[in-house]
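Example (one chain per record):
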Amino acid sequence: MSRRRRGLQHMISIRDNLLYECHSENLTWESYMKDCEKALNTSDLHSDEWSSDDEELAKEERDKKIRSKRLASTNSIIKVYDKKWRSSRVCKVVKLIN
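Predicted structure:
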């Protein structure tokens, strides 16, 4: 979860507009940030994911040119499954953080 925490810290440091757009007027900024931290630390809110080492799947991703640059030289496979209940706004925030 440290990747998500770093993502949130980055969004805060660059004053990302999305954070301000999602901030409810009836919450103080401090309460909002506490809620964001709580969400980061609540695993039920995060997508299910699995990873493995699979040479065949890695090759298939390379051939389709959908392989992440960070994983290009490895056979690591990481799959993330979205939660059905996520709003489009939450999906946008999570994509930015990741």
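Caption: The longest strand covers residues 48-53.
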